[in-house]
Amino acid sequence: MVNVLRFTDVSYLRNGRPILDGVDWTVTDSDRWVILGPNGAGKTTVMKLATANDYPTTGTVDVLDKRLGRVDIFELRNRIGFVSSATARRIPANEIVRDLVLTAAYSVEGRWNEHYEDIDIRQAERILAEWDLAGFADHTFGTLSDGERKRALIARAVMTDPEVLLLDEPSASLDLGARERLLQMLSGFAQSPSSPAMVMVTHHVEEIPPGFTHVMMLKAGRIQAIGPMATTLTADNLEATFGMPFELTAHDGRYAAVARP
Ligand SMILES: Nc1ncnc2c1ncn2[C@@H]1O[C@H](COP(=O)(O)OP(=O)(O)OP(=O)(O)O)[C@@H](O)[C@H]1O
């Protein structure tokens, strides 16, 4: 078991306000984590630290066994897969989907003068098929639906064989069918022993893919509950995190929560 992420007593202050406070969290290579919490709880800030895009104010963050602040973060970022709505905004609308995935191996957006190896081309084709994008390989990113875009960004993120895959609200804005298709794929990916550690931010228990093993529940920058999914995702912890009582049901590894009257 290898530690992929380790937060030790992490705080993150802005304008004198704690955005994160006393966060202790360890992710090992076989873990699949969900970070759940209301708007403004600090979920995206956790992702910023976990992707080496920012530093804690106090406490320490180790990413892939390297202490932030002491390591060349560019070397580290090549080993991290990250998908967020901001990632999508950086992709030119005329980028060809096959190139979008293929160029990840060379850490550039847009295809320039790289000489691609056959092995990379085969890997890109395999990953496109795995994420149900084979039929879109020659399409441009700008013509894809939201669901197809999300899958294309995940395909790009896994192209480099990252040691951790971080997804910030991957199913936000998707219609029911697109969401369910994405969740099925994420669930399959999460359950494969060859997949990297995964961390996914969401607002909704309905969006937790089966196969995710742990949950961190954040409220106002502090951990409200943390641990294995089965024992930590409870109606009581949801109430403590979201500030209202819920009826929580679980069926075949999927969860649903509705307000208790
Ligand atoms: N650099 C910053 N400067 C000032 N305030 C910040 C900064 N970064 C985050 N915040 C504030 O910290 C709080 C937590 O933000 P964050 O984006 O991490 O929350 P979140 O849980 O991801 O929210 P959402 O679910 O709405 O995306 C918010 O109130 C936000 O306005």
UniProtKB/TrEMBL annotation:
Protein name from the UniProt record: ABC transporter ATP-binding protein
High-level lineage: Bacteria, Bacillati, Actinomycetota, Actinomycetes, Micrococcales
Annotated keywords: ATP-binding, Nucleotide-binding
Pfam family, one: ABC_tran
Organism this protein belongs to: Leucobacter insecticola
InterPro entries reported in the protein's UniProt record: AAA+_ATPase (IPR003593), ABC_transporter-like_ATP-bd (IPR003439), P-loop_NTPase (IPR027417)
GO molecular function: ATP binding; ATP hydrolysis activity
SMART domains linked to this entry: AAA (SM00382)
ABC transporter domain sequence ranges: 5-245
Signal sequence segment: none
Xref: PANTHER family: SKFA PEPTIDE EXPORT ATP-BINDING PROTEIN SKFE
